[in-house]
Amino acid sequence: MSAKLILANFLPALNDLYGYLKRILVPFLTVTFIIYSLFYITPGSKGFEAELIWPFSYLIWIIDFFSGSLMNQDFYLAYFYTLQLVAGSLLLSALIVLVLYFFHKRNAGTIVKGFERLIKVSSGFHILIISLIFYKFFPHLRDASPLHPVFLLILAFGNGSIAEFYNSLEAEFDKVFQKEYALAAVAWGHNVYRYSLRETLIILIEILNARIPIAVSSTIVIEWLFNLDGLSYIILDSIKGREFGDLMISTALIAFTIIFVNVLTEIIRNRLDPRVRLI
Amino acid sequence: MTKKLSWINSHRVILLLISVFILGLGILSILNVPLPAYKPNEHVTLDSGEWSRFAPVSWRLPMGSDFYGYDIFSRIYYGLRTNLIYSMLAGVSFLLFGIFLGVRIGYYVADNHDFQKFLKGQIVRKAMKIKDMIRFFNYSRKGSGILSSFINVSNSFPILLAVLLLRVILDEFINSSSVKLGLSMVFFGFISSPRLANMIIGKIKRLRAEEFIQSAIVLGLSGKKIIFKHILWYECRYIILFQLAYIMGQATILEVTLTYFRYGANPPWYSWGLMLDNMVKFSERSLYLLFPVIFITVVIYFWMGLAEELKKAGEEREVSV
User: I need a surface site. Which of A62, A276, B144, B295 has the fewest CB within 10 A?
Assistant: First the structure.
């Protein structure tokens, strides 16, 4: 019996952990290795003054990255700020969309329809333009903290983000509420939201997970314009200064976060949806 | 009896008017028709020979002039040309890669048996031939697995960051800013293509079991004809066009953002991203500098609205079928 079989049969929790670690590490190492190699062969790359040649220098780099010796306090703070911005904007959009969808299902009055129209029209709002208008006409925002509600609103509405969120959520939720068990719950006079809570929660988490890369892209614009000390600011700054070392660390941190959240979403889905466990 | 326009219909009428306006202006600008009175790099001058800064709106200057005495309409007009050409580059690469990936994975995935046979006997001999290696990647499950993992990776990495990283590397090898922007847009189309590929794969897998495809195979129609005519054109055209319109909108956003960050087009190409910078600096002195903002919003809204309408049309067609 192989070690893998023993692990799967006798230590299922450890086997799951091994599977999740594999799903985090393999894509992360692949992505960072490709980016490192591209930077390494680029002439004029600063921050790669390693004693060993490629690909051994990558091994040293990745060990240093995980040991934390590559990053100073600024990196951790910047990472924390960017995480706050991304998570805050996604939660705000989720809140707006859920409230609107709830009112839409209850009673689609003029105000609700008006908000829906606003959200659809917001697909034309370029995040750069909204940010520039706020930058120009509200100068006090230039020194504001990253969690200022205006930044979260800009991130939520910019580039049609909330419109896409609302469209996908509406389409998926409508499918759930058309299922037989939901219709049966309505027919029996039960609260349909209670019965479909688990399934709708899974959908919501999956949509939020899919929107993280888009939110990170948007933070690049916001952080640069309003001088927020986030990770995206470091990225643009290091691109302008050709500091490839800093750029590599920031990119690796973002890649790690996205891959980690992907796996976390999978774990939550497995916990919430019993059908997945049966398979 | 007068019939009142419903909200949806009026929305469609507005979108149609915007479409005619943007497309008409875009075609004229791509054909280089000199519609504005001034060239984008030509200063509007007073009789005294000085630059006419912040000139008011007139027939010759429909949007006034900016701080440097340039005609704003002229810059918007030629900026539209730049924007459409680079967006089309992204759109074409998106279509090519998306259709290639979708068709290869969806239609040409061979049985597991073929892959095992391939592995058993002929790895060494076939691996020597490049053509067969390409076939191996195209037809085998292993190949489709690699392509599927590409889809997963590209879906989970920030696109703007990926384009910026490419730009950093290109800076060291290429001097021309327009070539660099062009390559960035092609790359953007390439990494966005899994969106289209995923949809085509789903559609093809569903359609392969349908009777009309089986009849076409029995009748002896070629694979190309079945794929391009019966599947892609008759069944997937709304999906493809909807995705294309969406990507054109995203490409517009990307082009403006890159140009604003000084990674975009430089003269002789004129871009809206550079005009936004002027808006920040001088909009207190002239509100005409807000015209580019309105124009960019309208263009993005046009692409996104078009995408939504095409999506609805596709869904309506599926329901009616």
Answer: A276
Q: Is A42 exposed, middle or buried (0-12, 13-18, 19+ CB in 10 A)?
A: middle
pLDDT in tens, B172-190: 888 888 899 999 999 999 9
Searching chain A, which residue's CA lies closest to the CA of residue B301? Answer: A124
Q: Which residue has the tokens 């680079």?
A: B86
Helix, strand and coil percent figures for chain A, each rounded to 5: 80, 0, 15
Please, what's the b/e burial string for B250-288 (b: 16 or more CB within 10 A of its CB; e: otherwise)? bbbbbbbbbbbbebbbeeebbbbbbbbebbeebbeebeb
ipTM (interface predicted TM):
0.85
Measured between beta carbons, the chain A residues lying within 8 angstroms of B9 are none
Q: Best interface-test mutation with A: which of B12, B153, B247, B253 has the largest number of A CBs within 10 A? A: B253
pLDDT for position B88: 95
Nearest by Cα to B31 from B71, B81, B72, B75: B81
Is residue B249 left, alpha or beta, with left meaning phi > 0 and alpha meaning psi from -120 to 50?
alpha
Of the partner residues B168, B300, B308, the one whose CB lies closest to the CB of residue A126? B300
Alpha-carbon gap, residue A177 to A101, rounded angstroms: 12
Please spell the DSSP secondary structure of B79-105, one letter per residue: HHHHHHHHHHHHHHHHHHHHHHHHHHH
Strand partners, A46: A243
pTM: 0.84
